[in-house]
Amino acid sequence: MDWAERKYHSLYRELDFERKGLFHNLRELLGDKAVLYPGCSFHITPSFYFSRVTYADKSEEAVRFFQQREAVARIIQREKTYKKACHFEFVQATFGKDHLPFKREFELLISLLAGNVAEHFLPFLKPGAYILTSNHFSGAKYFEGEQFKLLYTISANRKGQYRLSPSQEQKPLRNRLIKDNQKFRFDDRQTYFVYKAE
Predict the structure, then answer these.
(1) Does 113 or 9 have the greater pLDDT score?
(2) Which CATH number fits domain 3-197: 3.40.50.150, 3.40.190.10, 3.20.20.210, 3.40.50.300?
């Protein structure tokens, strides 16, 4: 196992932080979409469900991870749930400062743990695009205006299964690392929101 695989394994798979059920539900709901994921770190799980994903992050460690393109491609190839070829790319950018080299071609924006960065990426979304965000560190409040329509909420139960509900308010809970059989794992207590740009 090379460095990129070890990094992904230790930060996501080993802690049960991949959130595969979340992205499975999203793919079932929306179909295959062109995805833009700013603040991605090493979280490549969206590529297991969507065939075209553009990742963006400012950290040098994320750059190092994605520079090991063959290793990243191997992980995705092993895990992907669709038959067509996977296309992914990575862009290093300081959001709000750098000129962002994107076209208006994305149909889904993922904004999970990167804070208030989503607004910098809205110009690259096609009309009627979707946004996945959450109630923690994601700038979710930005999407509460008239420009966006809340379609669904998604939440996880204690077994790590994700439940999709028509738009409704849910009480935010805190994520936590829990020890289960002498091993730490991520207990996903976030509420996720699926918006549509009007």
Answers:
(1) 9
(2) 3.40.50.150
